[in-house]
Each structure stands twice: as structure tokens, then as C-alpha cells.
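Exercise (ungraded).
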Amino acid sequence: MTDRTDLETFPNHHIDRDYIVTLTTDEFTCVCPKTGQPDFAAITIEYIPDEKIIESKSLKLYFWSFRNEGIFHEHVANMILDDLVEALEPRWCRVIADFGIRGGISISVDAEYTMNGNRDGGN
Amino acid sequence: MTDRTDLETFPNHHIDRDYIVTLTTDEFTCVCPKTGQPDFAAITIEYIPDEKIIESKSLKLYFWSFRNEGIFHEHVANMILDDLVEALEPRWCRVIADFGIRGGISISVDAEYTMNGNRDGGN
Amino acid sequence: MTDRTDLETFPNHHIDRDYIVTLTTDEFTCVCPKTGQPDFAAITIEYIPDEKIIESKSLKLYFWSFRNEGIFHEHVANMILDDLVEALEPRWCRVIADFGIRGGISISVDAEYTMNGNRDGGN
Amino acid sequence: MTDRTDLETFPNHHIDRDYIVTLTTDEFTCVCPKTGQPDFAAITIEYIPDEKIIESKSLKLYFWSFRNEGIFHEHVANMILDDLVEALEPRWCRVIADFGIRGGISISVDAEYTMNGNRDGGN
Amino acid sequence: MTDRTDLETFPNHHIDRDYIVTLTTDEFTCVCPKTGQPDFAAITIEYIPDEKIIESKSLKLYFWSFRNEGIFHEHVANMILDDLVEALEPRWCRVIADFGIRGGISISVDAEYTMNGNRDGGN
Amino acid sequence: MTDRTDLETFPNHHIDRDYIVTLTTDEFTCVCPKTGQPDFAAITIEYIPDEKIIESKSLKLYFWSFRNEGIFHEHVANMILDDLVEALEPRWCRVIADFGIRGGISISVDAEYTMNGNRDGGN
Amino acid sequence: MTDRTDLETFPNHHIDRDYIVTLTTDEFTCVCPKTGQPDFAAITIEYIPDEKIIESKSLKLYFWSFRNEGIFHEHVANMILDDLVEALEPRWCRVIADFGIRGGISISVDAEYTMNGNRDGGN
Amino acid sequence: MTDRTDLETFPNHHIDRDYIVTLTTDEFTCVCPKTGQPDFAAITIEYIPDEKIIESKSLKLYFWSFRNEGIFHEHVANMILDDLVEALEPRWCRVIADFGIRGGISISVDAEYTMNGNRDGGN
Amino acid sequence: MTDRTDLETFPNHHIDRDYIVTLTTDEFTCVCPKTGQPDFAAITIEYIPDEKIIESKSLKLYFWSFRNEGIFHEHVANMILDDLVEALEPRWCRVIADFGIRGGISISVDAEYTMNGNRDGGN
Amino acid sequence: MTDRTDLETFPNHHIDRDYIVTLTTDEFTCVCPKTGQPDFAAITIEYIPDEKIIESKSLKLYFWSFRNEGIFHEHVANMILDDLVEALEPRWCRVIADFGIRGGISISVDAEYTMNGNRDGGN
């Protein structure tokens, strides 16, 4: 299991303003829980901070914690979103996980958190 | 005829949240019902799961079932959409089929399912 | 003059659903009515079918009928739109004509038909 | 000063429909009023014609009239927009001027005319 | 600290119209306050002028003033936005800072000013 | 087995000159002989004709003859090259087959015929 | 038949130096001699002038002379090359004709003239 | 250590011809031996087979064997090349490893085997 | 006429080594000597310095000196090459002028100077 | 002055083989010695190691040492090449420095070291 306590935060010094932080990596890998084979993804995180902003080195370590974890594609984006929402308590957050081709098919999962629970978007 | 029972599903473990799954393939082929000649397409499927998510290997086999089937371009996107809606009972679904050039003209078909029957979009 | 009776149609078998068909060609040519010189354009047609869908071979022949016709850029998109609306009676239709550079300037014309006469869009 | 009488027009034969004409050039040059040095820009004009459409050769000559004129970046887009609105009396018009890099910084100016004076867009 | 008095302005001669000025540079560098190592970013500024437009040479000098300043990624976009709003008193302003990859992760920050304090956009 | 008698030819009317004909398709499919699953490839054929040039409709039919044939990636390019050399007796010929991703790996095979049997190139 | 007397020339004022002139158009069309249907191509001409350089307006008219001519793909490049060699008597010349997709296959023909009759290249 | 016995081969059925097989993956990861942190690379393998061709599933497993191995960038390409040469005994082989950005710098390593030991190339 | 005395130089401090300097601009304009209409080009200069390197501000002024000069496309590249060779006395020099589309045709001219008068190239 | 002792090396463990290491950064900045203004460049280093390979962290620090140094464009590439040759004693080395646009002109410098002093290339 990933340990969400890994996600450290800084105080947000621009709390009076909604602004969007986007974090992107091409270097995410986990393991398929059915076949045990490695999966690779590009991950994009967008959020509007409330009182906290993410410390990027802890995010790097958090991504690495998935390296040997068996997890389905649909769960990756939702689990990262859940962990970020718990750690950051953001005003809005969106996670997109774009996985490489398997069997001729690529899969992308796009999950979003808003305060009222509906899809909404940061713009 | 394609056999929609081929489309297997998993339970959705993030049912409390609207999220979008996008599945893309460049490896779809069927046959023109008028000329008997092969057609090739890129297929994009987007959906917001309700209680089920698609099992991707069964989707691969489902795509293969079109290989020797005679079917018009406009029907491909609509038939895939119908089969996915029946198998997944999703909150929203969209299918785009982009066919290769014939006679200097390329054709793309973009069909969408919403619960109330109108075009709406997942964003 | 183009002869719009060239545009043949099939019955739409998915009449219960609004879906978008996009037809694109890079192989459209007509003649400048002022100079008699050839003009070249890429044409994009988007429509939501009602009871009819276009037969693509007749569309190819329809495009060819412009080959020796003298017609202004602005008229090309509007005339194609008029002919398609008469032949297809679609729920929505849009025609975009992108012409090559003349005198350092390129021209694109984007005309749209909706049932109530206002610009609206298919999405 | 540019002479807006250079901008000739044709009657619009599709007056019953809002459609968008886009004119683009990569070959616009003027002179910096502070340094006397040449500036280069790509210009995009979009408009919805009312009773007139622009004659493109006169637009080419109009662009050339800026060649030795000293004018600031922000004024280029606004002046072209003013001249087009006066000559065409369009339903809507937008002018975008993308200038080359100076001092490591590029500047783009995007000005828009609507009948009620607010930014609105043609789509 | 950057000295916002560096940002000089011209009077806006098109005050009756909302138009968007976009300024872009790929040549922004500052220093990480934790490690003392250089950071590099592309900066995009968009604004709708009210009574003032920015003088671009002073903006170049303003960017250079960050060269040896220790500042976090999230603060760069917000500080530039604050300084521009104070100097320009614009109707709307948006600053995007796209930083290079560190630890496999790239960061982009997108901050926006509107008169009523909410995110809104210039279009 | 493919039937190379399908490849029809025309006489080359420019026999006094070495020139290169390049034929490209994105619409090639065959079947994996181990798994029975479809494979997809882009095929590029380059040749310098001697007394014959290929008739392109027969090439289209020849490509289709692979549709249900079980054949390894490395053999596809070599077999097409062998069949073309037998049918065309060209001065030089090269076949490149670029297959889609399987197991995270894509395969391309590049085979070449010269009169003296060594790799040489047409340029 | 095309009339090569259409190709006018200017004297080359830099006869002491081998230099390459490249002329490119995306606006070439002719007719398939078998089906009577239009074909479209991009044409690239490269040559090293000897005593003559091509007059570009006459080249435009020369391209237009193919508009209603029935001619095979392989002949287009060779015929243009023959006509240019006769009109220009160049030190070297190369013609590339890239035709649009027919039956899923695109064709490019690359013909070259050198003084000694072998393929050689201008670089 | 990687176990090169993992690399299985098939007999080459086109031994009379030099042809190039190219295998590419974007899904290679290993570990930095100094910091223990994951590294990611795209790997390209090119070879001219002699009596053996690589079995691609065993190559996939071979790539995976690096997943938890500590290895420097320069060694990755050379070790893969050594293992392929031992397993395939090819006529020629080249391995390129393109690693992701670290400290603002990306590294690519390009190693080549020829029978006589010098760099040579397959074209 | 352009005044080649405008081209100032610095001494080359790395005279013991052949190295290539490449200077590129998208901001070159001159006038067609037949029609008086503006022409626009991208200019690329490559040279191997001997005892002098070009001072780039003087090159900028040199480019500007063509702004109102009537000159044919083929002459632009050759004249710039002549002027650079006279001013720099380089070991090798190449000038490429890529002009915008006129009558559907774009023209590029590529002229090269080597000490022995033949085309050779710097690589 | 930069201090070339900053460039640390590792022993090359593949000394029996010529292989190419390519190091690339988009994050190089120095200062114009005439104007004192910052310059930005992308730097590419290619080399064939002999007994030493570069330690990449020391290269990062070496690049940073140019941050406040006044140096001409032509000297940057040559100085980096000189320092690398002294530190690495490579079999071959090439340095390319691509600088941003100044006065509408961009400059790239490409310097190469071979054992016999002539330009040669690693391929």
C-alpha cells in the first residue's frame, strides 16, 4: 500500500486567490495485479490550493511508492486523487493517468474532486 | 454479428465520483458491406462508469469480432456505443470512429449517450 | 452550376440519437471567377443527421462538379452548406473551406446551419 | 497614416446567415516608432459579414500600407480592427497580431468588435 | 526583492475596448530558495488593459531582476501577477509560469486576477 | 499463402532513367502465427523500376491477401520484397514494415534488394 | 499534351557557382487516364541552373496545363523532369511528385537528371 | 545481474539477405546505483540478423529484469548490446538508450557492434 | 544597392579549429523588381570562420538594407553569399533563402561558397 | 573564468568499443560581455569516451558556473569543448550551443574535436 503520510505540504502564501498548480511526470510505473507485469503511465495533477501546497520532493517519493504495487489503471488515478485531497484539502483537484498501449489499446483515467462532489473544472 | 456478451466488466470501486475512462485503439478493421473491401479506423471510447468498468482484454476481443463483419461507417460508432451502454450501463459514454481516406474523403463518426438522451459531454 | 441532385442519401438507422458525422477532403478545386485561375481548398463537413445520411461516393462526385466552376471563396462554403441542407435535411450542419495562400493571404470560410437559424455548434 | 479607403468590399450574398471569414497573413511588417527598426507580425482577421465582404487584393494593399509606418504593437491590432469595422460594418470582427521576439519577449494583441461593445466571440 | 517600480507603462489609447495583450518569454530564470540551484521557466502574461499598457523593455528588466532571487515556483506566478496588477491596474490579468523538470516532475502555475476576485478568463 | 500472381505490372516508359517509386499504406493487417491475434503495420515500398512498374490496384489486393494469413513480423517484409522482386524485376527495391506496439515493444523490419545482393540504397 | 514552350526562362547571373533552386507547390492536379477521376499531388522541383533560371509565373501556368490531362503518376514526375531539362538545360534537376491516397495507398515518384545520366544528388 | 539466458531466439529464414530489425520501447526502468532512485529510458535496438532473430516476448522479460537493478546510464546501452551480441551473434547491432532529464540534463548513449569492431552503421 | 561595408567583424579567437556558425532570421523582406510588391523570406547563413566572425548587430542592419531594394529571389541568396565572403573571408559559407508562397509556389535558393569553388558542405 | 577542475570523471568500463554519449540541456545561461544582458542557450554535448566518462552532476555545476560570466556566443561552444577535451581526453567530442533570438536573429555554434584536428563526425 502507498503511505499517504509521505505527502508533505507547505503553507500557501496566496490564499486569497484561486490559482492552479499543475504537476506532470512521465516517470510513473506500477504493476498489473492480474499478470504481475509492469505498467507505465504519464500522470498529470492539477489543483487549486486552499491552505496547503504540495512539497514536490515528497510527491516524487510518493510516485515511487507505486513502483512495486499491484493496482488497476482505474484505481491509480482515483487513489492518487484521494491521497492528494486528504493531504492538501484543496479547493479543487484533478488527476489524469495516461497508460501505455496493451493489446493495441491505451487507457487514460481522468478523476476530479470538487467541494460539492460534481465534475466542474478549474477554469 | 458481434456478440456483446463478449464485453466483460469489473465492479467500479469509485462509485461515489464521476470520472472519465478513455480507451483508444488504432487497430480496428471491418469490411465495407457494399464492396467487401477492408476498412480501417481509430476508435476512441470515453465513459463515466456507474457500477461497472470495462475489462480491457474483452474489449480487445470485441474489437476483433468486427474484423470480417460488413458494416457501414456510421453504424460502427453507434453499434459500439449501443453495446457498451448495454454492457456497462454507464452514466455517460461517447464513441468516436475515425476512418481512413476513401476517394479522397475521410469520415469520422462521433456518437454519445447520456442518461436523458441529449448530447452533453463529460466535462 | 453544381447539380445538387448528385447528392444521394441513405436512411439513418440511428435516428433516436444526435451524432456527428465529419467528412474531410484535401482535394477540392474550383476556379477564380475574376482571374480564371485554379483555387484549391480543404473542405470539412460536419452534420447531425435526421432521417438521411450522405452517400460518400456521391459526395466525391459532387466535389468534382466544382472543378471547372468559377466561384468566390465565400460562396463555396455557403453553397455546399445550402446543397447539403437541401439534400440531407439535417438537424445541424457546418461547412469549413480552407483555401490556399494568394497574395500572401489565406482565407477560411466557416458556415453553419441550425434549425433556428443561429450559430450554435454540434457539441 | 494608413488610408482605410483602400479597403474595398463586395456585397455579401449570404446575408441571411451568420458565417465566419478568417484571413491570415505571415507577411506583415511595420516600423517601431521609438527605434525606427522593422517589426514583423502574423495577422489573423476573423469576421461575420453583414452586408459586405472584404475584397482580398485590397486587403493585401492595405497590409502593405503599414510597411513604412511607425506604430506600436498594441495599436496595430486596434487600428486594423477600427479600419475593418468602418469599411465592412460587420456583425462581429476580431484581429490578432502576433509579433516576433524582441528582447526575449514576444507580444500578441487580440482585439474584438461586437455590436454591443463587449468581448463575445464568433462561435 | 524585485522592485516593481521597474515596471513602466504607456497610456492605453484604445480604452473604449476590451482587448487582450499576451507577452511570452522562454528566458526566465531564478534560484531555488532551498537548494540555491537555478530554476528556468517560460512565462506567459495575458491582460486586458484599462488605462495603462506595459512598456516591454521595462518588463524585460523586471524579468532579469529575478535572476539571483531565491523564490518558490508557486510564488513566481503570484508575485509577477501582484506586481503587474499594481503597476497596470488592468481589467483582467493572468500569469502562467512553466518550470523545467526536477526529479522527473515539471510544475506549472497559473494565477489570474479579475476585478471581483474570482477566476474568470479573458475570452 | 499469398499468391504473387496477383501483382500486375505496366511497362515502364522511362526505362532510360533510374527513378524511385514509393508506395505507402497504413492499412496492412495479418495474423500472429503463435497467438492467432491480429497484427497491424504500416508498409513502405521503394523501388527503381527496370522494365515494369506496379499496378497499384493489384498491390491493394495483394496487401489484402495477408489479412487472414499467419505470418511473423520479420517474414512480412522479406516475403513482400521477394514477391515484388519476382513480379517487377526491379533495379533496386526496399520494403519497410512498421508494426504496432505489443508488450510495450514496437518492431520495424527493413529489407532491401540490390542486383548484387548487398545493402546499397536508392539515393 | 502539355506545351513545354510555356516554360520561360531568365538568364542566370551567378553562372560561376553551383547553387540549388527549390520550387514547391501543393496545388497540382491532373486526371487519372483509366478512371477519368481527378488526382492531386504536391510537386517539388530542385535544380542547379546552368545558363537559365525558370520564370516562376510560367511554371505556374505550366502546372495548370496538367489540370485536364490524363496521365499516370509515374509519368507526371518524369514528364515534368523532361520538360524542365529541355527548357532549362540545367546542370542537375530532380522532380518529386507526392500523390494523395487512393485505395489506402499513397504514391510518390522521385526522378532525377544528371549530366552523365546516373542518380547523383545536388548536395 | 541480468540473466542473458532469458533472451530466446528463432532461426532466421532470410539468411541470404542483410535486413535490419528495429525494436523500440518507451517502458524501460532501472535504478541509479548512487542514489537508489528510479531512472527511465526509451531503448532502441537495431540489428542485422545472421542465423538468429530475437523472440520478442523474451526481450520484454529481459527489459523487465533491469527494473530493480542499480546500473549507470553508460552501462545500460553497453550491457544490452553485449547481451544481444552473445545471444544473437548478429552481423551488426546498435543499442540507443535515451534517459529522462536529471538536474536539467538528459543523457543518451549509442553503442554499436560490428564484426570488425569499428563503428559502421547498418545503412 | 546594399552596402557591404555595413558588415562588421570581430577577430576569431578559435582559429585553430573548423567550427560552424549558423545565423537564422525569419524577418527578411525585399521588393519584387517586376511588380514592386514586397517579398518575405527566412534566411539561414552557415559559415566556418577563418580569421573573422560576423558582428551580429551589423548583420541585422545589413538585412534591413534589403527592405526597399528590388531584387529577384535567386539573386538574394547569391548576393548575401558574395557580401559575406568578401567581408568574412570564411573557410566555407552557405546561404539559404526560403521565400513565401506566390501563385501557389514557394521558392528556396541554397548557395554555397568553398575555397575551391565546388559545392562541398561543412559537415 | 570557469574552473574546469569542476568537471569530474568516472572510468569508462567499455573502453574496447567506440560509443557515443549525448548530453543535452535547455537550461544554460550566461551574460553578454558587451551589454551585460542575460543570454540563454540549449547546449548539446556528444563525445566518444576513451578512458573517462563525465560525471553528470559535475557537468550541471559546470554549466551553472557560466551564469554570471560575460562571454560571446562563438566562445561558449569552443570553451566548453576545450574544457571537456582537457577533462575527458575523449576520442571525439562535439559541442552545439543554440542561442535565443536577439534582434530577430538566432545564433547556433557547432564545434568539434577530433584526434587529428579535422571535422569528422561520430557516425
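Further reading is listed at the end of the chapter. For now, observe: The helical segments of chain I are 56-64, 73-88. The beta strands of chain I are 9-11, 19-31, 38-48, 52-54, 92-99, 105-114.
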